[in-house]
Amino acid sequence: KNIVILISGRGSNMQAIVEAGLPHRIAAVISNRADAGGLDYAQARGIPTAVVSHREHPTREAFDAVLAAEIDRHQPDLVVLAGFMRILTPGFVEHFAGRLINIHPSLLPSYTGLHTHQRAIDDGVKLHGCTVHFVTADLDHGPIIAQGAVPVLRDDTPDTLAARILKVEHRIYPQAVAWLCGGQMWLNESGKVTSNGPE
Ligand code: GRF
């Protein structure tokens, strides 16, 4: 299978997926920012990279059209958002329906949006985590593929909590990619995640 990964920053989830050694091809790593640290890693591994800068396009629609065309060149079976910090248009999401996934740093449906770790600490929740989900036009609300939970400890700061969760992200994201590319899990016609495995 062909996998295209979209990043905006350091790309540690992208790295975890690459290093999982899955029997699939990382066809490209694409960033909306030329200074994304993860691009250096991908280049060093010989993975094709591209930058599609949102700043060079006047509207979200224009940016998404160019981005979709760049992704399509690689004929992806799966498009993986890994710290990709742009909200995508409904047209883009529709184009990649059932092939577009994201990882979000909370146990969805709690804490959609930004600053999830600070908000979890402020609320005093005892469990927090991360979620891999299909992307739909409704931000952070797509069908859930996998989740990982961690305890919130008394002295946690957003940074210590984020670090604990990031380790879990690096485990569940490659696992989810493996399930989807391996055909053990998919999005059915009614928009529900289905599996033929133990999960
Ligand atoms: C992760 O915490 C992910 O959950 C969120 O953005 C962060 C990306 O980190 N969507 P990285 O670029 O994969 O290191």
TrEMBL record:
Any one of the GO BP annotations = 'de novo' IMP biosynthetic process
Which is an annotated GO molecular function term of this record?
A: phosphoribosylglycinamide formyltransferase activity
**Active site annotation, chain numbering:** 104 (proton donor)
InterPro entries recorded: Formyl_transf_N, Formyl_transf_N_sf, GART, GART_AS
The entry's keywords: Purine biosynthesis, Transferase
Q: Which residues bind N(1)-(5-phospho-beta-D-ribosyl)glycinamide?
A: 11-13
The chain positions of domain Formyl transferase N-terminal read 1-177
As recorded in UniProt, its EC number(s) are 2.1.2.2
In which pathway does this enzyme or protein participate?
Answer: Purine metabolism; IMP biosynthesis via de novo pathway; N(2)-formyl-N(1)-(5-phospho-D-ribosyl)glycinamide from N(1)-(5-phospho-D-ribosyl)glycinamide (10-formyl THF route): step 1/1
Listed binding positions for (6R)-10-formyltetrahydrofolate are 60, 85-88, 102
Keyword presence, DNA damage = no
Q: Does the keyword Transferase apply?
A: yes
User: Where exactly is the site Raises pKa of active site His?
Assistant: 140
What is the reaction catalyzed?
N(1)-(5-phospho-beta-D-ribosyl)glycinamide + (6R)-10-formyltetrahydrofolate = N(2)-formyl-N(1)-(5-phospho-beta-D-ribosyl)glycinamide + (6S)-5,6,7,8-tetrahydrofolate + H(+)
Q: Which GO terms describe its cellular component?
A: cytosol
What PANTHER family does the entry give?
PHOSPHORIBOSYLGLYCINAMIDE FORMYLTRANSFERASE
Concerning its family, UniProt says: Belongs to the GART family.
- Describe its function: Catalyzes the transfer of a formyl group from 10-formyltetrahydrofolate to 5-phospho-ribosyl-glycinamide (GAR), producing 5-phospho-ribosyl-N-formylglycinamide (FGAR) and tetrahydrofolate.
This chain's protein is named Phosphoribosylglycinamide formyltransferase
